[in-house]
Amino acid sequence: MTKIRLFKTVAGLRAYLGGQPPGKTVGLVPTMGALHAGHASLIRRALGETDRVVVSIFVNPLQFGSNEDFGRYPRQLESDCQFCEDLGVDAVFSPSPEELGIVSEQETTRVIPPESMMSTLCGLFRPGHFEGVATIVTKLLTTVEPDVAYFGEKDAQQLAIIRRLVVDLNLGVTIKGCPIVRETSGLAYSSRNQYLSETERKQAIWIFYALKLAEEAFKQGERQRATLLKIVQEELALHPSLKVQYLALVDPQTLSPLDTVEEAGLLAIAVYVGSTRLIDNVILRVRQPIIAIDGPAGAGKSTVTRRVAKALNLVYLDTGAMYRAIAWLVSKSGVSLEDQGAIAELVTHAKLDFSPPTEGAPLRISINGEDVSEAIRTPEVTALVSQISAQPAVRAKLVSYQQDLGKKGGLVAEGRDIGTNVFPDAELKIFLTASVQERAKRRWLDFQDQGDGMTLEQLEQDIQQRDYRDSHRSLAPLRQAVDAIEINTDGLTIEEVTDKIIYFYQKIISY
Predict the structure, then answer these.
(1) DSSP symbol at 478
(2) In terms of Cα–Cα distance, which of 83, 86, 72, 268 is closest to 159?
(3) What pLDDT shows up at residue 486?
(4) Closest Cα to residue 277, out of 242, 229, 249?
(5) CA separation for the pair 298, 307 (Å, rounded)
(6) Which of 39, 239, 349, 472 is catalytic?
(7) In a 3-state reduction of DSSP, which class is residue 303?
(8) Mean pLDDT for each 10-residue chunk of the chain (511 residues)?
């Protein structure tokens, strides 16, 4: 195992990152230290999805109020570095306030998020907190320049604000939220949990229990804010040692208050357990489950995905058809494939409409009002798809479109990074794989039927090279999501693989 690098200066970290091989992706996990299992889940996600991982450890003075716990917040850099090294992190960045340009609060340039996002939830009780968070996170993002930055969903208001500032400041980074990690009791991991006495820790478990009661009512069809909040309040009233600071139902992205959950709601709470303030939340989504299927070429993803969609009456999201539609548009526009700027302009303003196949009608796809369902299947378009899909602007456009289509759920999609990037919150993630020998044999049998004379050895070599290219792409590389179920299809029929996926889906539904 390579020894972890510790950098305390911006110059040192930038020199280190600048010396990395070109094309390598960088993941950033910003923390304030006192690392625990929740941080470990963020780090593992970053390690699984990027080539180099930097963990920042910085207790940010700008986000603490005058009567808060800045002075006693746990600082344990040596053990935190060991924690990161054991997980396989490449570098830790632990600067001083002065190194990040914080001389005094009055003399520091600040990033100020929208007032509407700061004047709710924690922001009501922690004035200046989210300005401090936004300022330091912006400094970290512009210093490290990661491809992806990972944040925990426990700090849901922080996550929403950071996503907004990245959009508003046009920062070239993807922000990924990661699920809350909990102790076996249900208590969300937090660096402040170490403040709790044994008695207080036992009391704190009722916070999540109360949220779960509301979540269960939501699953049974309850959508009204007043009823959902009342369920939590009535449960916590049975535990007078817990002092609720706030309890609210808001939109997870805008943080606007909700009276009724129509697509998604964030049920968030802050509670004092003794002198320790804890936050927690649950996301309430009005959507059917999503199945994300990833895997290498030749593993049978396309065929299996179509069969799963049909068997479960889900929408088959044909992402390949969408890339073909963009390739068709570029070819008709006369724009050079080398002119990425012109393609980005063209794609940004394109309007795509996707009508999934039904029992009586095939897939229909149109772009800028023109039906191209047949035109995208021509050899000319096929020849362009690979080069077009490798362009960042095309990818960004279509991932955003696919995510919009997924808001209501009830779909299954396959690709290289469906579970890691397109639908990272999919209820079921499958990584479909098979040995090189098995995949080569399947292709060889197909070629035999077509009269092609390629040998097994040639096919195995081709597949190995394709696997390498797909897993080493700078854009959308093949990755297995850390929470994906791997299914090796060696020796299995298409029906057997389909049945396995349906079995896992039904387990999720019943849960």
Answers:
(1) -
(2) 268
(3) 97
(4) 242
(5) 16
(6) 39
(7) helix
(8) 91 96 93 95 95 96 86 91 97 96 82 97 95 97 97 98 97 96 96 94 97 97 98 97 98 98 97 97 95 92 94 93 94 93 95 85 92 93 88 93 94 94 95 92 77 77 87 84 94 95 90 64
Q: Which two tokens stand for residue 73?
A: 């917040």
Q: Which residues, 6+ apart, have CB-to-CB distance to 358 below 8 Å?
A: none
- Find, among 13, 40, 36, the residue nearest to 26 by Cα: 13
39 is catalytic: yes
Annotate 33-87 with DSSP letters as a single string.
S---HHHHHHHHHHHHH-SEEEEEE---GGG--TTSSTTTS---HHHHHHHHHHH
Contact 55, 13 (CB under 8 A): no
Q: Which residues are annotated as a binding site for beta-alanine?
A: 63
pTM: 0.89
Annotated binding site for (R)-pantoate: 63, 158
Instruction: Give the pLDDT score at 67.
Output: 80
As beta bridge partners, residue 250 has: 257, 266
Q: ∠432-434-436 over CA atoms, to 5°? A: 140
Domains and CATH numbers, the chain: 5-178 (3.40.50.620), 191-285 (3.30.1300.10), 290-510 (3.40.50.300)
Annotated binding site: 32-39, 63, 152-155, 158, 181, 189-192
Q: Which two tokens stand for residue 74?
A: 């746990």
